[in-house]
Amino acid sequence: MMKQRIGRSWLLMLMHGMLGIGAIIGGIILIIDPSGSMVNLPASLLENSPFASFLFPGIILLLVLGVMPTMIAISLICYIHWGLGERLNLYPDRYWAWTFSLYTGFALIIWIMAQVYWIQDVSIIHLVYFAWGVGIQVVSLLPGVQRIYSK
For residue 68, what are the CA distances in angstroms to 32, 38, 105, 142? Predict the structure, then answer.
């Protein structure tokens, strides 16, 4: 059982919370309007991608970069036990949400790299979110943060 800790990494929680809320909103919008017109995304962005509409990217955005980081942020605050999270935790000496923080950083980096590959263009927003993914990983790997979330 996870020891109750006094310390928290507020920066890590904030990074996950902001990412999660933004991705939930963006994912819902793309699911409601898979044409992308609601957020001024031209259909031409999908030309080199395997997707016919923004529906599937919207679902991925909602679940992987929306719901998951939000769950992680809450779990980093409350130390929620999650059996599946524990089983998928590659670092059993760390709290599962800490490990999933690293997973989320990788997911965000992969998401941005896939966008850049399919769109064949890089914009400032890509650079910001790429840096955000790296930032989540860097903050997660700080020795003080690792100590906070070690078992």
Answer: 20, 24, 11, 21
